Amino acid sequence: IHAAAVELNGKAAIIVAPSGTGKSTTTWGLLHAGLRYLSDELAPVDLDTMTVHPYPHALCLKNEPPGPYSLPLGTLRTTETLHVPVEFLPAEAALLPTALVQTIFLKRDVSLDHPGIREINAGEAAARLLANALNPLAHRGDGLDAAIEIARHTRSVELQVAGLAETCEAIRIILGASNHGPS
């Protein structure tokens, strides 16, 4: 899945959104909030075990994050992106597959002062997952079966992002409320 993945207390969440919505920036903030890093841009999900496999590589940001989430000196800067190598992340990387319990679909609304959370059903989640699949043709049903499987086994929410700190706190709350199955 084209998503970031983080872990908290043995539970993984994938953060799914179109490019430029803030997946990597949100992940950067979550690593400052005590979550562990599984991946950025690519969340490899094992459909048989419903786990996310770690794919720890440099976190790639398109813009400087807001304070107090400043980037370390070891950040590699290009004309278009900022790459934070794993060894400079503010939290450790998870090294083992982690149970996937939560799918969070980010939505940007610049008019919001605080995040909004809306639970979504498995059908809507599957459609959104399919739209963010990286190799759907490699799976049965051209990826639809895989998207349905993930949607059936995780809780899914749409999170309208606001400030980074507030968005990260909302995700911590969402993950704390997650169980090992959909509601």
How would you characterize the overall build of this protein?
This protein starts with a strand and ends in a 6-residue tail after the last helix. It has 4 helices and 11 strands. With 183 residues, the protein is of the alpha+beta class. The protein has helices spanning 23-32, 122-131, 144-153, 164-177, and strands at residues 3-8, 11-16, 36-39, 45-46, 51-52, 59-61, 76-77, 82-84, 98-108, 116-119, 155-161. Helix content is 24%, strand content 27%. The longest helix is centred in the C-terminal third of the chain and has 14 residues, at 164-177. Strands 1, 2, 3, 4, 5, 9, 10 and 11 form an 8-stranded mixed β-sheet that branches. Strands 6-8-7 form a 3-stranded antiparallel β-sheet, covered by helices on one side. The relative contact order is 0.22. Helix 1 packs across helix 4 and helix 2 crosses helix 3. Strand 4 and strand 5 (51-52) form a beta hairpin.
What is the molecular shape?
globular
Let me know the average pLDDT.
Answer: 91
Distance between the termini: 22 Å
Strand content: 25-35%
Based on CA atoms alone, the radius of gyration comes out at 15 Å
Sheet having the most strands: 8 strands, mixed
Total count of strands: 11
Quick description:
The chain has helices at residues 23-32, 122-131, 144-153, 164-177; strands at 3-8, 11-16, 36-39, 45-46, 51-52, 59-61, 76-77, 82-84, 98-108, 116-119, 155-161. The chain has 183 residues and is of the alpha+beta class.
